[in-house]
Amino acid sequence: MVSVAEHAVMQLLTLVRNYIPAYQQVVDGRWDIADIAARSHDIEDKTVGIIGMGQIGQRIALRLKGFDVRMLYNTRHRRSSTEEAVFGARFKHLDDLVAQSDAIVLSCPLTSETKGMFGEERLRSMRPGAWLVNIARGQIVDTDALVRVLEDGHLGGYAGDVWYPQPAPPTTRGAACRGTR
């Protein structure tokens, strides 16, 4: 559980700091710091939504506290006010969390309720330029819709260690990478 929580935070920081495009520039023998910095952000003062506040979601929240982010969460069973204070997170209904978050981390199980939860409509209801991290299950996010919202620039990027189908087809792998801003 600890490694998954740390992995989620690493993926979030990789997106927000624009690490992959910066790395690719170096690999390509270039270094345009202005281009990289223009799309690199601080995570401080951002709003991060965590969907799924089980053991992994709780560990993600605890690790993010040190970054001075505002944290929102949604889960099947709301945590007590004491737990919310410990995690530094406030409960929000799903649509409110999605609309208010600069970044969303999916850490919920795959159920009949979560399968396809992030289809095109919900992805487009995210803030323009927002980032999505999926450490849960690939089927929670509609792959084709994700590619569309990344390619048209609505989202700032996607990071995940899950995809559906897995492994990701070559035609969708590149699209998700291009969407990372």
Automatic annotation (TrEMBL):
The keyword Protease does not apply. It holds the Pfam family 2-Hacid_dh_C. Keywords: Oxidoreductase. Residues 9-171 form the D-isomer specific 2-hydroxyacid dehydrogenase NAD-binding domain. The keyword Manganese does not apply. It comes from Saccharopolyspora gregorii. This is D-isomer specific 2-hydroxyacid dehydrogenase NAD-binding domain-containing protein.
